[in-house]
Automatic annotation (TrEMBL):
Residues 1-33 form the signal peptide. It comes from Massilia atriviolacea. Transmembrane segments: none annotated. Keywords: Hydrolase, Signal. It comes from the Bacteria. Residues 214-410 form the SGNH hydrolase-type esterase domain. This is SGNH/GDSL hydrolase family protein.
Length: 428
């Protein structure tokens, strides 16, 4: 039988080309039991809070006490019931929740009238997660369609160090004093750039529903996209996949590396929790390695030795093996161009021609090795055909490292859905 693996090549414009992989209707629904099941619909990968010696500030409050946090999230796949998951992965003390409510989100911090529901844990509104543990709520009867926006409000009555968080300002929570879990709006709330403890939202979806996890760094996390607008490339991908009942979980961490820690644990260390533990996952996209190449010798990791291609390749091979052991389809994405990245900022030194040569060698392996089930040539989508080491100007957020809204949309639109959701290889 013929096999199709879409690859992207560029001569000015990204064009789809094909090599051999199984010819099948990739979005056809697999045989499944009639009962609905739990599927990961939204996620934010946890990070350990770093100290002030690092060049970037954590950007979130040091702790909460008698305060409420309202997070607004957009689901990918929908369902009739949902569960909220908090993470105390990096906490040294128990994480204590005084109360939590979830509602359909209106504008800003407002709730849709009549949609607020109490969230319980083992039948109680109070809950505690041990250090290193997650806290999964009881099922909440709140029907929410695909791409619905939720407002999740959590009250922390006791001193609560923010030891487990997710860095970045693509969707900023609201913070107020007192128990505001039932408040219809929070007009006087402060805001901060990141997530605190909120890890994922699961939905009870139809039997055939499943999800894709995107494991990545700041490109996946959406740096450079418009805040509070759901403009990451994974958001656009979720819009494309929603009609097929397929969810998208963003497991991107800004600054994340395959092999190094600092802004989050290395990919090999977090793969089990951030990818394999997600219920209903059937495919994983891996788009990582640019920080392993760019950080050494820069202000992010001034003492690190220069990276070469082989350790990056070996790390990717390990992730492929672990995905296959859990019957996941694994898609490899090439590393996007980054000439001039962060030039003229306190972070200058991220790019050099030697680093770009390493990126190109890694990309050649991703494209030609045949070790992934499918390949997404993100580099070809975004690169300037006149100068392939840099991003096309219309796709650049301005820092020459992260795409803007147009670049993220181009990435999501270029990904071939058949390659993403097709049948897993059985050889090797």
């Amino acid at each position: 039988m013929a096999y199709l693996v879409p690859l992207l090549h560029s001569k000015g414009n990204a064009m789809l080309a094909f090599r051999t992989l199984p010819l099948l209707f990739a979005l056809s629904i697999p045989a499944a039991a009639a009962e609905p099941h739990w599927v990961a619909s939204w996620g934010a990968s946890p990070q350990a809070r770093w100290d002030d010696s690092f060049i970037l500030p954590a950007g979130v409050p040091a702790s909460f006490e008698r305060q409420s946090v309202r997070d607004v999230v957009r689901l990918s796949v929908g369902g009739k019931r949902l569960r909220i998951v908090l993470s105390n992965r990096y906490g040294a003390t128990p994480l204590r929740v005084g109360e939590m409510r979830v509602a359909l989100a209106g504008e800003g911090a407002a709730l849709v009238a009549g949609s607020s529901r109490a969230v319980t844990f083992g039948g109680s509104v109070h809950a505690s997660a041990a250090p290193g543990a997650v806290l999964v709520s009881d099922a909440v009867d709140l029907p929410a369609g695909a791409l619905a926006r939720l407002a999740i409000t959590t009250y922390y009555p006791a001193p609560t160090p923010v030891s487990t968080f997710h860095w970045g300002g693509q969707q900023m929570p609201y913070l107020v004093g007192g128990n505001a879990t039932a408040a219809a709006d929070l007009p006087a709330a402060a805001r901060f750039a990141g997530r605190a403890f909120l890890n994922s939202v699961l939905v009870e979806a139809p039997a055939a529903a499943r999800s894709v996890v995107v494991l990545g760094d700041s490109i996946t996390d959406g740096n450079g996209s418009s805040p509070d607008r759901d403009r990451r490339w994974t958001d656009v991908l979720a819009q494309r996949l929603a009609p097929a009942g397929v969810g998208v979980v963003n497991a991107g961490i800004s600054g994340a590396r395959l092999l190094g820690d600092r802004m989050g644990a290395n990919a090999l260390a977090r793969f089990d929790q951030d990818v394999l533990a997600q219920p209903g996952v059937s495919s994983v996209i891996i788009m990582m390695g640019i920080n392993d190449i760019g950080w050494p010798g820069s202000p992010f990791a001034p003492g690190d030795a220069a990276m070469n291609a082989q350790p990056v390749v070996e790390a990717l091979r390990q992730l492929i093996a672990r995905a296959r052991a859990h019957q996941l389809r694994v898609v490899g994405a090439t590393l996007i161009p980054f000439e001039g990245a962060l030039a003229g900022t306190p972070f200058e030194g991220h790019y050099s021609p030697a680093k770009d040569a390493v990126r190109r060698r890694v990309n050649r392996w991703i494209l030609d090795s045949g070790e992934f089930d499918a390949v997404f040539d993100a580099d070809a989508v975004l690169r300037d055909p006149a100068r392939p080491s840099r991003m096309r100007a219309e796709f650049d957020s301005g820092d020459h490292l992260h795409p803007g809204d147009a670049g993220y949309r181009a990435l999501a639109q270029a990904l071939d859905l058949q390659a993403l959701m097709g049948k897993k290889r059985t050889r090797r």
